[in-house]
Design brief:
- The chain is built from 10 helices and 6 strands; from the N terminus they run H-E-H-H-H-H-H-E-H-E-H-E-H-E-E-H.
- Helix 4 runs antiparallel to helix 5 (90-105) and helix 8 (162-171) packs across helix 9.
- The radius of gyration is 20 Å and the shape is elongated.
- A 6-stranded parallel sheet has the order 3-2-1-4-5-6.
- With 245 residues, the chain is an alpha/beta fold.
- The chain is 49% helix and 11% strand.
- The chain has helices spanning 4-7, 27-40, 47-65, 69-83, 90-105, 114-122, 135-145, 162-171, 186-195, 232-242, and strands at 14-17, 126-132, 153-157, 179-183, 199-202, 223-225.
Length: 245
Amino acid sequence: MKTKQTEATMTLTTISFDADDTLWQNEAFFRLTQERFVALLSDYAGHDHLHERLLAAERRNLGHYGFGIKGFVLSMIETAIEVTDGRVPASVISDLMAAGREMLRHPIELLPHAREAVEALSADHRVLLITKGDLLDQERKLAQSGLGDLFDGVEIVSDKTAAVYATIFARHGTAPEQAMMVGNSLKSDVLPVLDVGGWGVHVPHGLTWALEHAETPEGHARFRQLTDLGGLPDLVVQLQYYHKI
């Protein structure tokens, strides 16, 4: 970690990472469970209709249950009750709950270059993990990832907004313009950080939850996009050097 005096001369002092689908796989397990949900209810409704009804339930319930597996399971159960007019068999509810428990037990699979990127940047920068979701599940995944000791701070939040990012950066002694957020979601990881004056780096994942889609901020001076985390350390060096000229 740099000293405070050295940090004062740096353009970028803090690099923040999203967790799910940025450092490790996540959405793939939701997709598998969603297909299991569709198969269980195939006698009551068609494939597309079930997907649409589940997505509507998830959107409707975000304010009640937040992000994460538990809210997803409750939304599946609610949708099952709705599409069967209350006649869903108890065995289907049991299977959906079992599917949720399987998701909570699933081993962590780090994405390419995740460890190398965090290790490289932690040598000279304050490194934070900023993730949303269920507290216990996110703590479990972080512990299993083996990356926990590399972070100077871990923030598990109910949602990611400009105000939330501003508060986190202030708590860690960082001005927004000296902070970078790296993640797979334009809506949650990039756009709110750009709004507070920070740097947003988008690392797309092959699977993105429909509720996380947003338009790419083409032409924004503080927006960058990478194919994977392998290019992140060099990008940080380039930005640091460029803004010191």
